[in-house]
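anyone seen this seq b4? input:
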Amino acid sequence: MSRVNEGEKFAALDECHRQMQQHLEQLRHLMLGMQSAGLDEVARAQAAEIEKFFSGASRQHHAEEERSVFPELLNSDQPELVSAVRSLQQDHGWIEENWLELGPRLRALATGSAWVDETEFLNYAQVFMDLVSEHLALEESLIYPESKARWAQALQAREHRRAQAGLAGLVRP
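predicted toks r here
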C-alpha cells in the first residue's frame, strides 16, 4: 500500500471507531427510553439508524481489520500481541453472533412491530454494547498503536532505502 493509502486506511478505521462509540451511546439512550417511556417516532428512527450502521459499516470495518491490520500482527514474535489479536478475532465472531439476534429486533422496533420482547432486547443490547466496548478498548490501547508504529517504521525504512539508493547513484567509482 502506498503511504497515502495506508494513512487513509488508519484514518478511516479510527473514524469508524468514533462512529461505533456514537452508535453505542445512541443504543444506550434507546434502551433507557424504552424502559421509561416506550418508543416514539424519534426512537424508532434511532433504532433504524443504529441497525443500519452495525449491519453495514461496522461489519465492513471488521472485515477490513481482518484483511489489513491483523495479519501482520499475527506474525509478530510477541506472544502477548498475537494472543490479543486472536482474542479480537474471536470477538468479531461473538459480536457477529450477538448481532444476528439484536439486529432483527432493532429492525422490528424501527418499524413498530410488536413481537420484540423488551427483556430479551435489553439483554442482547447490553451484551452487544459490552462486547463492542471491550473490543474497541483493546484495539485502541494495543492493536492500533502497534500497527501504526509498524507502518511508520516500514515507511521510514523505505525512505531510508530510497535515500541510500539515491546517494549510491550519485557516487561514481
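The domain at 3-165 is CATH 1.20.120.520 (Four Helix Bundle (Hemerythrin (Met), subunit A)). The helical segments are 3-36, 41-55, 57-74, 79-111, 118-170. kinda curious what u guys think
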